[in-house]
Amino acid sequence: MTTMPTTFLKSLNWKKVLLWTGVIFLVLFCLAPLLWQVLTSLKTNDAIAKLPTVYFPNSQQLTLDHYLILGGKFLRYMLNSAFVSFTSTLICLAVGAPAAYTLARLKIPGEQIILACVLVVSLFPYVLLFLGLLELVKFFGLGNNYLSLIIPYTAINLPLTILVLRSFFQQLPKDLEDSARIDGYNTLQMLLQIVLPMTIPALVTTGILAFIFAWNEFIFALTFITRDTLQTIPIAISKIGGASAFEIPYGPIAAATILGTLPLVILVLIFQQRIVQGITAGAVKG
Amino acid sequence: MNVLLNLWRQRSRLTRILVLAIATVTILLTCILPALTQQRVKITVMMQALEAAQWQPIVAKFEAENSDIDLEIIEAPNATNLVEDLYTSAFLLGDSPYDLVYLDIVWVPKFAAAGWLKNLNEFVSQDDLDNFLEGDINGGKYQEELYRMPFRSDVGMLYYRSDLLAENAYNPPETFTELIDISQDLQEKGIAKWGYVWQGKQYEGLAAMFVEILKGFGAYWVNPETLEVGLDSDKAIASVEFLHNLIKTGISPPGVTTYEEEETRRLFEGGETVFLRNWPYVAGLTSQSDLAGKFALKPMVHQPEYESGTCQGGWGLGMSATTKHPEEAWRVIEFISSEEIQREFVLETGYLPSRRSLFNDPAIVAKYSYYPQFLEVVEKSALRPPIAQYAQASDILQRYLSSALTNTMSAEKAMKAAAAETRRLLER
Amino acid sequence: METDTIRRREKQTGWLLIAPALLILAFVFLYPIGRAFWLSLFTQNLGTQLEPVFSGFNNYARMFGDGRFWYSLWNTSVFTTISISLELVFGMTFALVLNQAFWGRGFARTAALIPWALPTAVMGLAWAWIFNDQYGVVNDLLFRLGIINEAITWLGEPTRAMFSLVVADVWKTTPFIALILLAGLQSISSDLYEAHAIDGATPIQSFRQITLPLLAPQILIALLFRFAQSFGVFDLIQVMTGGGPAGSTEMVSIYIYATVRRYLDFGYGAALVTVTFLLLIIAVAIAAFFLSKSRINISGER
After folding, report:
1. pLDDT tens string A148-165
2. pLDDT of B291-349, one tens digit each?
3. Do C117 and A49 touch (CB under 8 A)?
4. Is B117 buried (19+), middle (13-18) or exposed (0-12) by CB count in 10 A?
5. Of A14, A127, B30, B264, which sits most exposed with the smallest number of CB within 10 A?
6. What are the phi and psi torsion angles at A37 (to 5°)?
7. Distance from CA of A228 to the nearest CA of B (A)
8. Nearest CA in chain C to A115
9. Which H, E and C letters describe chain C, residue by residue?
10. In terms of CA atoms, which chain B residue is nearest residue A230?
């Protein structure tokens, strides 16, 4: 940007065009397959499998049946998912943030080794954890208990949480903490009252990612919980049946997916504003 | 300690949320802990949710007649492989929570070899078994011992458009060549877009379909007694070339290499193809479509000098080796496989019974006129190799067969590699 | 003396703060990983009646002749490399766009997260249907646009099947990278850009000289986790192709999962896990080594 008004205008327009191209591409890219799911969930079974492809159903092809057959039981699965995801996310942040702060600021012996371990552990393909975990679950008698999901989900999300938060803590200017220390804050007070409020974008980001992972996890939820009343949404979706053992009931599955994802969308809508509440310009100057 | 105290004193929002969360967890966990005391003997079995719903009337009836047994059905996802995985993990942990195991026919050897199933010989006599379809009984055996009582049978077959064949003065095809000739003629006349549609995706259904072609060509996959592998015989290679040629000559759409059962059924019902290879469920569904009365079914085509082959599938009950209530569990099996229950179940759902007499049962034939035809198909049934390492053998075959069908390898090269790998597997 | 006690207390607090996290990590990861290493020295399969029998490095020797394993490793590497490169480009673009102020930004931010929020197994089904040769939307659109006149079997040919999987995966996981980068962008002070602009720098210059270096820690973290997730990809493949056609989309985790859970070959499966795990660690270690040689500051300290 230069000071000359004409070129400034030009570059502004050019930037605007670029920005809106980006926005439109982003929205299309992300929402088109979702739109397809929404349309599928509203089409009759005949319309779903019709050739040529039906994009927008007409009045005879439109139905709410796929939603209605889900029934009140689905609410129960949603509550299960919500409880498991919420708890594990909370624990993950509560445990991960202090650990990240230690790794970022406090000098403890073996820091590099701990960091390396956290890194290495995150490389283990999580699907392959399940056999060992199954034995643990059995050993501690945690089968059909929410803890058998909450603990593994927390652990799987911890490396990401720790590393992301640590990178943000490190980017905070040190002066702030130094002056707080002079004001008599101890480490914990500093973490809770100064550092965390300033890294809300990072907390929200990792929180959202952890929550979504827990909400959608399938293999553990399938294996560790066999009692119907305790199961989570992905399992409920996988139990939706069609007219035959071979049929994939696209309509009801789409409906269950839309309904099951709605809470996440609302959650993100609420929390996305928080992503911007980070360090505002000028608030912290060295 | 100091730190914790400080934390508490501060009463920051974070702390409060944390305390709240811990309290919630504790309360919920204590609520969940089951304290179910039962006087009745509980017998548990797991199956796909779809079928569990279909079993509900049977369960109600059983419990009404057997007040000392509580039959509980656990719903699993509607995917066969996931049910297998769930049973597997339950057994790996030792004492399985399931007293009964609802078994797909191809799991029997593996589950039996792993020692997870109880031998059923002591419960049932040969005379009783003679009432069931031979293929179903054989499929429930591993090394001559019976581990599974068949409940519902399943078998692969050839569906054809009887209206189109009659209009063009064709008899239903008996041999591979006839199937090709009729297809090409009707395609050239513009009567049908495709000639023959089948399942060619790399998955278990591919192996099931291929077993039929193999038998029709007089070849075999694995001999369960000698463990000899026949995949690289000339006849086996010819059977792969037959399938490959169907795609090359446009009799089958190129997409068959991605199709499972449902895609092929849809094409058939949409009138896009003359012939279809599929399972019995298609007969029920297609009778309710626009194609009702315009199609018929028969055993799979074959080479003139060999017998037709139809792939044996089906489900039945086995008993967990660790069950504490074998007597009660057997009573469930006996009840489920009785003629009366099978009749009811077939009338309700349209599945195939495993008892031979039911195919000509007046009540069933009155509802499904095509059932007597199924008997002819069922009697030609061929088993997938009943070996403990079947899952792996099947994966090997699927990969190489898929390679041949998708032009990644020649039929000969693919089958030679498949045979070599299977031999290595069986030697281990 | 004074500073010594402060040091000590800081150390104590540090350990207290980090201990819960380490305990949870150890509880969940230590046993499964240790178990895999230990079990890889045994033969435990249907041949041994599922009893572990010590066999030294036999399992590792067997691996050399196992073409299917190396092929799946190759498939996974191809899939991972292409996917995460595309995701980084898209994710960066999305983050930059979402970091601007424009009308409807909250909506766009939520939209950008939706692919990540939808369950993979279900969207895998949807994608398989979208790429279906007869009923699929992709072919239908291409027909309507007149680009093709014969149905393309997207999932029926090795290269195209891989392409379809990459499309589905990029769609699914770009939001993950975008979100982490967006959070990173938020913590870069806008003063820096203003000062830079006054110095006469173009937007591209400020992107290269301010954004990239300051965003380096987040970029590396996002890449690291996407690398791990992508190498362990499971649900998506299982649902869309099952590893076919011709085994061309079979990934390591699919193969190992089958070996353990369906073939009941536990010892060998454990050896496969161990080798894959070690290879991943080596790959990351090499990457870290080269990064430390270059001038990128991984730790993010200023």
Report:
1. 999 999 999 999 999 999
2. 999 999 999 999 999 999 999 999 999 999 999 999 999 999 999 999 999 999 999 99
3. no
4. buried
5. B30
6. -65, -45
7. 7
8. C22
9. CHHHHHHHHHHHHHHHHHHHHHHHHHHHHHHHHHHHHHHCCEECCHHHCCCCEECCCHHHHHHHCCHHHHHHHHHHHHHHHHHHHHHHHHHHHHHHHHHCCCCCHHHHHHHHHHHHHCCHHHHHHHHHHHCCCCCCHHHHHHHHCCCCCCCCCHHHCHHHHHHHHHHHHHHHHHHHHHHHHHHHHHCCCHHHHHHHHHCCCCHHHHHHHHHHHHHHHHHHHHHHHHHHHHHCCCHHHHHHCCCCCCCCCCCHHHHHHHHHHHCCCHHHHHHHHHHHHHHHHHHHHHHHHHHHHCCCCCCCCC
10. B32
Q: How far apart are CA B165 and CA B170, in angstroms?
A: 5
Selected residues 25-84 of chain C with any CB under 8 Å from a CB in chain A: 25, 27-29, 31-33, 35-36
Residue-wise pLDDT for A194-224, tens only, equals 888 888 888 998 999 999 999 999 999 998 9
DSSP B87-130: HHHHHHTSS-S-SEEEEEGGGHHHHHHTT-B---GGG--HHHHT
Inter-axis angle of helices A5-42 and C67-99, to 10 degrees? 130
Which residues, other chains included, contact C147 with Cβ-Cβ below 8 Å and sequence gap of 6+?
A: none
At B21 the pLDDT is 63
Query: Do B146 and B200 sit in the same domain of this protein?
Result: no
If one counts the domains in chain B, the total is: 2
Tell me the β-bridge partners of B42: B70
Residue B344 makes CB contacts below 8 A (sequence gap 6+) with: B57, B58
Min Cα–Cα distance to chain A from C120, Å: 8
Tell me the shortest Cα–Cα distance from C292 to chain B, in angstroms. 37
How are beta strands B69-76 and B41-48 bridged, if at all?
parallel
Last residue of a domain, one of B371, B403, B419: B371
B360 occurs within a structural domain: yes
Q: Tell whether C211 is covered by a domain.
A: yes
Supply the range of the domain harboring residue B241: 157-310+384-427
Of A171, A199, A233, the CB nearest to C302: A171
Residue C21 lies in a domain: no
Are residues C60 and C116 located together in one domain of the fold?
no
B28 part of a folded domain: no
Verify whether the Cβ–Cβ distance B263 to C132 is below 8 Å: yes
Q: Strands, DSSP E only, in B188-322? A: 194-197, 273-278, 296-298, 310-319
Taking CA atoms, what residue in C is nearest to B112? C46
Q: For B141-188, what is each residue's pLDDT tens digit? A: 999 999 999 999 999 999 999 999 999 999 999 999 999 999 999 999
**B56 and B190 belong to one structural domain:** no
Q: Which helix (H) or strand (E) holds B157?
A: strand B157-160
Start-to-end C-alpha separation, chain B: 59
Least confident range from A7-21, B15-29, B105-119, C165-179: namely B15-29
CB B310 within 8 A of CB B378: yes
Check C135 against B389: CB less than 8 A apart.
no
Residue C231: closest CA among C181, C185, C173 = C173
Q: Do B49 and A239 lie within an 8 Å CB cutoff?
A: yes
Is C245 close to B408, i.e. CB distance below 8 A?
yes
Tell me which DSSP letter residue B172 carries. P
Chain A interface includes C201 (CB < 8 A): no
Residue of C nearest to A276 (CA): C186
Q: Are residues B168 and B215 in the same domain?
A: yes
- Domain holding C122, by residue range, is 78-248
Same domain as B119, residue B145: yes
Sign of CA dihedral A199, A202, A208, A211: negative
* Residue C91 banded pLDDT, cuts 50, 70, 90: very high
